[in-house]
Amino acid sequence: MVETRADILIVGAGIAGAATAYHLQRSGRFSVLIVEKEETAGGHSTGRNAALIREHVENPRLQELTTESAEFLRTGELASYDRSGLIALGLGDEDLSKYVPICQGKGLWYPKDGVLDVSGLLQSYLAGQEVRYRTEVTAWRHVGRELHVSTNRGEIVCDVLVNAAGPWAGRLGNLPLTPKNRHIFVTAPLDWVDQRWPFVWDALNEYYFRPESGGLLLCPCDETPAEPGAYTEDPARLEELADKIMTHQPGLGDLPIMRSWVGQRTFAQDDDFVIGFDPRDEHVFHVAALGGHGITASYAVGRLAAELIADPAADRTNPFSPKRML
Ligand SMILES: Cc1cc2nc3c(=O)[nH]c(=O)nc-3n(C[C@H](O)[C@H](O)[C@H](O)COP(=O)(O)OP(=O)(O)OC[C@H]3O[C@@H](n4cnc5c(N)ncnc54)[C@H](O)[C@@H]3O)c2cc1C
Asked: Which end of the chain is least crowded, N or C, by CB within 10 Å?
């Protein structure tokens, strides 16, 4: 029995699905329904990241999207933004101790980068959207010019299914994508940490840290391929972090780690985003493989996805099309 119909059915209430829904809703052209398998939005990659808005990235195609998006997110219109800056060690000549007195190294200073309230951004994107929680898409079939989508809570009929399933996007959309585990560690409050310190990213030795909850948030920049949702913590990653800090930032000393978690960054083989119609099925659209830039780029990713869904002919010149990998 058919229970529900929507023009566009978005699978996943993470930042990719939410930003796409936000722009589709603003266009006013489609009815949109989001389905999310969990009880709440943002419980996977979107709720497990470092919340950095980093405009400058290595890949020029991604940079267009991160610049557009960061410029908008910095206005604070959708979520509060702390313009604390970023120093990228190893990429320039600025003395780090100028910004973080007990640390050492030289780097490139990005004054406009900073930390965003990710949960606030997600809620802003989702405001006014219809979201069905505890609803997992399991399959779909074509009936005439429509898709009949099976979920654990009945069938939904749509014209276009948007695969914004984060770490599950490869499995759901039959795409060669790889989720990679990354650990984050947070210390107890530390009275010598100035909460105005910038984000410090060591681009050569691969670790980063920034102020968090009175202490520090740190990451060893690990990337271990894993099954979607397999968040088992690996004790070796804490040792890796301790080694990197002892070698490169001994001034931070012995850090009292209070909590930690694992999140997944999902990549295509070429590390580019995957945004566009599936060349095998004109009813399926992917917004996936946002890697380590999904929060920063979200506003522009959602804008691009909504434009391509509204005008499929534009997909012919879209550099993020999944055509490149199929
Ligand atoms: C440790 C770490 C640090 C990071 N730091 C940053 C950073 O500082 N700045 C930055 O810009 N980015 C950062 N990222 C990257 C960023 O978090 C991701 O790019 C982004 O969150 C991906 O969002 P998403 O919506 O694609 O995936 P998700 O947030 O995982 O959302 C996918 C959703 O789809 C749902 N879903 C899956 N399958 C189904 C199904 N069959 N039916 C229904 N629902 C389904 C899931 O439950 C999930 O809620 C970091 C990531 C990690 C792990």
From this structure: N
